[in-house]
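Read as chain and fold; for instance:
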Amino acid sequence: MKSAIPLKPMSLTTAASFFVGGAILFFVIQHYLAPALAGWGLNPVLNLLVLNSPHVLFFFGALIAFRKEGNQWSTEAFSRRYRIHKIEGRMWFWAALFAVINIALYLLMYNIAFPLVEWLHQTFPTPAIVSELYGDSTTFAGHALKGNWWLLGIFLIIIFFNVMGEEFLWRGFIFPRQELTHGKYTWVVHGLMWTGFHLFSPYNALLVLPGALFMSYIVQRYKNTSLFIISHATLNLLASIRIISGILG
């Protein structure tokens, strides 16, 4: 078996360029590209996919980065390099607990800092096109939810690339290399950077902050990206309750 390629440390500026670049990409798409495409009459479903396209770039970018490091492609090698390990036995309990704590931290921050959250939301409002495409309790991607189960499929595709794209790139590719630079403080640096990535939606960045630091610490403690994947997916999938409820009418 070919030996693993030694990892190279990632500098603070290089890591920051990834997170800042991702934030800028989302900002440009939300504020300029998606509204322009809507004005040109693009189908709302396609526009919603465009809105979430950076996550697709993250997903495939992480795969390309794996090969660019010189790794031989195999599921085993990819899992080992990106630290995607099986969750077995008692670890499922801890994985579930971490996911619950992450959600609790998000809600706790919302309640504790509600005046600041509200001010940020009003000062830096979510672009109208984002609200239109994500809809409300009765609509999603420009379509009525009731009876349209295919919309749940669109939602799940978006969530898949959202979670796996970020986890492969941020936690899989970048985090282990940051550890070679920042050592035991990596969870702080990484957690703050991931929070900063969400600044294209400032109020959401504030809500994400506690969970970002907590889960970054957990991932560094256990060297297991799968824990963040489970927590991230659980938090994002809460929105499926609205989608399913709307479909059921």
